[in-house]
Amino acid sequence: MITVFGSLNVDYVFQMDRLPQPGETLLASNLTVLPGGKGGNQALAAAKAGAGVRMIGAVGKDGLGNIALAGLSANGVDTSHVTKLEQTTGTAAINVDADGENSIVVFPGANGGASHLQLEGCGFADTAILLLQFEIPSAEIEKAISLAKQSGTRVIWNLAPMQPVPLAVLKDVDCLLINQGELDALCKSLGLVSGDRTNLSHKDGIRAVAELTGQSVVVTLGAKGCAAFHQNRLIEVTALPVTPIDTVGAGDAFAGAFAAALDQNQTFEDALNWGNVAGALACLQPGAQSSLPTHAQIVQRLPDLAL
Ligand code: RIB
């Protein structure tokens, strides 16, 4: 069982030829309203990849809350511990250009009321993995990590969107999942970049963070696949080649499938493969949750990863 403690949003996805410049107004060619939030997306990705999943978070009592939860309930995610608050449901404005690139602005709304007390309420007895992101308050995440440590639950934290984190907290996280930009920001915030350098190569970066925290670090590299530093070893995985239509949610697809693989006792290397395939397949349809692959779709494409 995986417990996801994180955000639940409604995504307003604007389609356009190119992303706007500062001060510029553009007309969008299409608008879709879809369930989203990194927490909800990762919960659904893990469930579709075959894991039992419980979602812990908060939505508003407005009609948007039901939109945010619809895909999760329909795919067997336990949402019975999601609270409904007076605030507006978390909302994201997502611009997607003709090449599938995106920019996202999130208003957290009810996500700001997600509490670690909800985790105490549902218990950790059946949870092997706690999967976290960074769209709910950091104080609540830190308390959740502490609860997980007490109960021997493995913690995977996707540090997105990246914010500085105390080193002592990172040392309690079994596996950090980050993209290249988040890795650069993390290395800077931990004082791992010195002299005139503004960043480290991704290999040096994940090694440095892994050695400092004593834990595993995975960096996703988009079309270049991913790399990890795990148990004193560098692991590199090439991406499944695809022509992306929309990259929204690709990182969430990776995180959910990676966690689901570990929950199903796959090796760390195989979990990276599952994540890589899921992230690539998630780029083939618009929207974050509509594009998440099933367990069968992931397994079918694993042999297509170049060795
Ligand atoms: O990672 C994609 C997600 O980021 C979107 O669904 C949006 O809600 C934001 O949380």
Biggest pleated sheet: 8 strands, mixed
Following the backbone from N to C, one meets helices and strands in this order, namely EEEHEEHEEEHEHEHEHHEEEHHH
> How much helicity do the residues have?
25-40%
The first-level CATH class name: Alpha Beta
CATH architecture: 3-Layer(aba) Sandwich
Small-molecule components bound: alpha-D-ribofuranose
Poorly predicted tracts of residues: none
- CATH overall fold name: UDP-N-acetylmuramoyl-L-alanine:D-glutamate ligase
Structural class: alpha/beta
Q: Please state how the strands of the largest beta sheet are arranged side by side.
A: 4-1-9-10-11-12-13-14
Report the span from N to C terminus.
Answer: 30 Å
Overall geometry comes to globular
Question: Using only CA atoms, what is the Rg?
Answer: 18 Å
Q: How many discrete domains? A: 1
CATH superfamily (homologous) name: Ribokinase
Helical run tally: 10
> Would you report the number of β strands?
14
Which range does the strand content fall in?
A: 15-25%
What does this structure look like?
This protein is of the alpha/beta class and 307 residues long. The chain has one domain (2-10, 38-91, 108-306): Ribokinase (UDP-N-acetylmuramoyl-L-alanine:D-glutamate ligase, 3-Layer(aba) Sandwich). 34% of the residues lie in helices and 23% in strands. An 8-stranded mixed sheet has the order 4-1-9-10-11-12-13-14, with helices on both faces. Strands 3-2-7-8 form a 4-stranded mixed sheet. It has a two-stranded parallel ribbon with strand order 5-6. The longest helix is centred in the C-terminal third of the chain and has 14 residues, at 250-263. The chain is globular. It starts with a strand and ends in a 6-residue tail after the last helix. The model has no long low-confidence stretch (mean pLDDT 95). The chain binds alpha-D-ribofuranose (RIB).
